[in-house]
């Protein structure tokens, strides 16, 4: 999210309890650095949340200042997460949410890879998948927060792929 700082990504999570925003950095050698998460209660992200995100992001990059900012801000609990399950647990979400994120991410990445290596246009793919061009564009930009998994699978099918599911017992 460029309005916070360079390299900052935003994850939008919806579940039965509400809408959440998570701000994180992915260019880390040892994992993903989640530096702020909050539940949205209004349509517009509150200015104080954005200011806090900017403050924490800047302090993180200034290594020596990071500890001081984290001590002075009770609201922030830094977590290094190495996978989707770690992020879900850090946010207090069920592990099943992490599974959904992983499936969505894998399907989305496959769609993008196939599309990039094909001669198809966004319009062609939208027609084949019987969905809108805007929705295909969002998928190609990895913005699938409001796109159902069945639509993602239909788009993947429209690229000529079959889906084979494998179920494993969760640990």
- What is the makeup of the main sheet? 4 strands, antiparallel
Low-confidence stretches: 64-70
The coarse overall form would be: globular
Give helix and strand order, one letter per element, not per position.
EEEHHEHHHHH
Overall pLDDT level: 76
Query: Would you count the extended β strands for me?
Result: 4
Number of domains: 2
Number of separate helices: 7
Straight-line N-to-C gap: 33 Å
**Approximate helicity band:** 40-55%
* Backbone CA Rg: 18 Å
Report what the structure shows.
With 171 residues, the protein is of the alpha+beta class. The chain folds into two domains: 8-93, no CATH class; 97-158, Orthogonal Bundle (434 Repressor (Amino-terminal Domain)), CATH 1.10.260. 45% of the residues lie in helices and 16% in strands. A four-stranded antiparallel β-sheet has the order 1-2-3-4. β1 and β2 form a beta hairpin. α3 crosses α4, α5 packs across α6 (133-140) and α5 crosses α7.
Give a topology summary.
Layout: E1 8-15, E2 18-25, E3 32-40, H1 47-61, H2 66-72, E4 79-81, H3 84-90, H4 95-116, H5 122-129, H6 133-140, H7 149-158
Antiparallel strand pairs: 1-2, 2-3, 3-4
Helix pairs in contact: 1-2, 3-4, 4-7, 5-6, 5-7
């Amino acid at each position: 999210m460029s309005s916070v700082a360079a390299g900052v990504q935003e994850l939008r999570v919806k579940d039965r309890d509400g809408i959440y925003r998570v701000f994180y950095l992915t260019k880390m050698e040892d994992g993903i650095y989640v530096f702020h998460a909050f539940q949205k209660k209004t349509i517009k992200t509150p200015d104080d949340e954005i200011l806090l995100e900017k403050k924490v992001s800047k302090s993180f990059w200034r290594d020596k200042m990071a500890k001081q900012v984290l001590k002075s801000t009770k609201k922030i609990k830094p977590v290094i997460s190495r996978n989707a399950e770690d992020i879900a647990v850090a946010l207090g979400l069920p592990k099943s949410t992490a599974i959904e994120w992983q499936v969505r991410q894998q399907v989305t990445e496959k769609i993008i890879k196939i599309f990039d290596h094909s001669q198809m246009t966004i319009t062609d793919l939208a027609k084949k998948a019987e969905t809108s061009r805007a929705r295909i564009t969002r998928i190609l930009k990895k913005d699938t927060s409001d796109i159902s998994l069945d639509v993602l699978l239909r788009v993947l099918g429209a690229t000529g792929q079959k889906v084979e599911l494998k179920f494993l017992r969760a640990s």
